[in-house]
Automatic annotation (TrEMBL):
Signal peptide: none annotated. The chain crosses the membrane at residues 27-47, 123-146. This is Cytochrome C. Keywords: Heme, Iron, Membrane, Metal-binding, Transmembrane, Transmembrane helix. The keyword Membrane applies. PANTHER family: CBB3-TYPE CYTOCHROME C OXIDASE SUBUNIT FIXP. It comes from Sphingobacterium corticibacter. Gene3D superfamilies: 6.10.280.130, Cytochrome c-like domain. GO terms for molecular function: electron transfer activity; heme binding; metal ion binding. Residues 186-265 form the Cytochrome c domain.
Length: 283
């Protein structure tokens, strides 16, 4: 769930809310409420300025004293901030340089200052030591984390799981417009069991035809290409008693049985039914 919304999301939501088909009175009420709140804020601001003016005129000494106290507070805050910044960077005033001169280190009048290491550098240096110790313990002593070789193995396993998931879903993404003949024979082999369980009663165990037409010759009633067969199996031929198998079989299973029917062409089973329909010439 998103927690942060961009300005565009907020404006789009407000626009959709105000321009929706809801009660028009609600929209008028919201606009009036927003305008009233803006007027109220402006009135409060003007009253505050007026009270300040009255206080400045009526009690000038107290007003000046308040201004001085506020200025002192701001100055003290600035000094504290500068002191923290100087301490972080290891800076010193020019008046303090004489305390930093290295003794017995004077060459031709040239002296050097013994500047201490800045606090930020020490913090960074010691943090790298702590990080290094933590890394060493986590990855090489207690094995809480995965090294590069282990990460590679895990990523390969995840990729294989994603590939298998895609392949399992891709089989059911096929339809009559995208199906093609499987040249490897894998789909046809898988479709044989489906054909035997669901189609053999009408078309014969070898596709020779009984109640339904012969599927082994080159004559077809509804087209003999793989897409035609897929479409016929999927939507059926209710007028001739063939039910739509899309209600029983998945698209992947229809693709398998369609490839099996294609593989029956010219198989010449015993006692084939007479050809029906139009002869299809294959290249």
């Amino acid at each position: 769930m998103r927690v942060f919304l961009s300005t565009g999301d907020v404006l789009a939501g407000i626009k959709s809310f105000l321009l929706s088909d809801g009660d028009i009175h609600r929209t008028i009420f919201l606009i009036t409420l927003v305008v009233a709140m803006l007027v109220l804020l402006l009135a409060v601001y003007r009253i505050h300025r007026a009270l300040q003016a009255i206080y400045r005129i009526s009690f000038p000494e107290s007003y000046q004293k308040d201004l001085a106290e506020k200025a002192n507070i701001r100055a003290a805050r600035t000094l504290r901030s500068k002191a923290r910044w100087d301490g972080l960077l290891g800076l010193h005033k020019l008046e303090e340089e004489h305390t930093l001169v290295i003794k017995d280190h004077d060459y031709d009048g040239i002296v050097e200052l013994d500047n201490p290491i800045p606090l930020w550098f020490n913090a960074l240096f010691y943090s790298t030591i702590i990080f290094g110790l933590g890394y060493l313990l986590s990855y090489h002593v207690f094995a809480w984390g995965l090294n590069q070789d282990q990460e590679y193995v895990v990523e390969v396993e995840r990729a294989e799981e994603a590939r298998q998931l895609y392949l399992s879903q891709a089989a059911d993404l096929v339809d009559e417009s995208s199906i093609t003949v499987d040249s490897t024979g894998t789909l046809a082999a898988a479709g044989q069991a489906i054909f035997t369980a669901n189609c053999a009663a009408c078309h014969g165990a070898q596709g020779e035809g009984t109640i339904g037409p012969n599927l082994t010759d080159r004559h077809w009633l509804h087209g003999g290409e793989i897409r035609d067969i897929f479409k016929t199996v999927k939507y059926g031929v209710p007028a001739k008693g063939m039910v739509p198998w899309e209600q029983t079989l998945t698209p992947g299973q229809i693709a398998e049985v369609s490839n099996y029917i294609i593989s029956l062409r010219d198989s010449k089973p015993a006692n084939p039914k007479a050809p029906e329909g139009t002869e299809v010439v294959y290249e």
